[in-house]
Amino acid sequence: MISESPILVTGTARSGVSMIGGVIRLCGAWGGRMENITDYDGRGSFENGEIRESIVKPLLRGIHADPTGQRPLPSIRECNRIAGKVAFTWRRRLEKIIVCQGYQGEPIFYVSPQSCLIWPIWAKAFPRARWIIVRRKDEDIISACMKTGYMTGYKDRIGWAQWLEFHKQRFSEMIDANLNIFQIWPQRMIRGKIGELRELIEQLELSWDDARVEDFIAPILWKGGIFEVTD
User: Fold this and answer.
1) Domain 7-225 adopts which CATH fold?
2) 8-state DSSP, 55
3) Which of 106, 110, 125, 181 has its CA 20 to 30 A from that of 98?
4) What pLDDT is stored for residue 190 in this prediction?
C-alpha cells in the first residue's frame, strides 16, 4: 500500500507548478521516476511520466478531452459521473506503478496541471490527499501561454482567458468540496519572500533547507523575467 495522503501539486500550466514540485522533491517527498523533460526553467518537470502516460492521458482521451489539458477540456459533469466507477482501479494502477518504481514508504507527490481538471477522480481515489494549488496572476498566465510553443490550444487572449476561467472554476469546486488544499503564489518569492513556501513545507511535514531551496528557486524566478516583481 502507498501513502493514504499523497501530495498532489496542480494549477494552470505556466503558473509555476513544476517549480513547486521541484521544491517538494528537494524537501524529501518521493515522486518515482520522473522523465528527463525540461520545462521553461531548463529543469525537470517533476511529473511521473508513467503515471501521466498510462493512467491520466488514457482517462482524458476516454472522456473526449485533450490529454494535454488544453482543448477540449474535460467535462466536470462526466468526471463526477465516473469518479465512483473508476476510482478503485485508478488507485490500484497508480499503486502498482509506484511500488514497481521503488517506493519504500516516503511521502508521495505527483505534479500535474491536469489533476485539477479531473479532481473528482483523484479525490475519490485518495480522499485524504493533500492538494497544492499553484497560483499566478491571470494576465501573466495568459501572456505566458501565448509565448510558449507547446501551448497551441488557443490563438488569442480571449481563448486563453476562457481556458483560465475553466481552471479557476475547478479550484472553487475543490475548495467547496472541503478538500485539504494549500494555495501558493510563487510570484511572491521574487523578492525573497519565501516564508509562505517554508510554511507549506512544514505543514507537509517535509524537511526545509533554506540554502538548498533558495539555490533551486532563484534561477527560475529571475531567468528571463519569468515572474514579474510583485508584492
Assistant:
1) Rossmann fold (3.40.50)
2) I
3) 181
4) 65
What single-letter amino acid sits at 111?
V
Residue with cell 477540456: 73
* DSSP per-residue string spanning 94-149: HHHHHHHTT--SPPBEEE-GGGGGGHHHHHHH-TTPEEEEE---HHHHHHHHHH-T
Structural domain spans, the chain: 7-225
Per run of 10 residues, the mean pLDDT along the chain (length 231 residues) is: 89 92 94 68 76 97 97 98 96 95 94 97 97 96 94 97 98 98 86 83 93 80 48 36
pTM recorded for the entire structure: 0.92
The grid cell for 147 is: 509565448
Beta bridge partners of 128: none
What values do phi and psi take at 91, rounded to 5? -65, -45
Query: How confident is the model at residue 221, as a pLDDT?
Result: 63
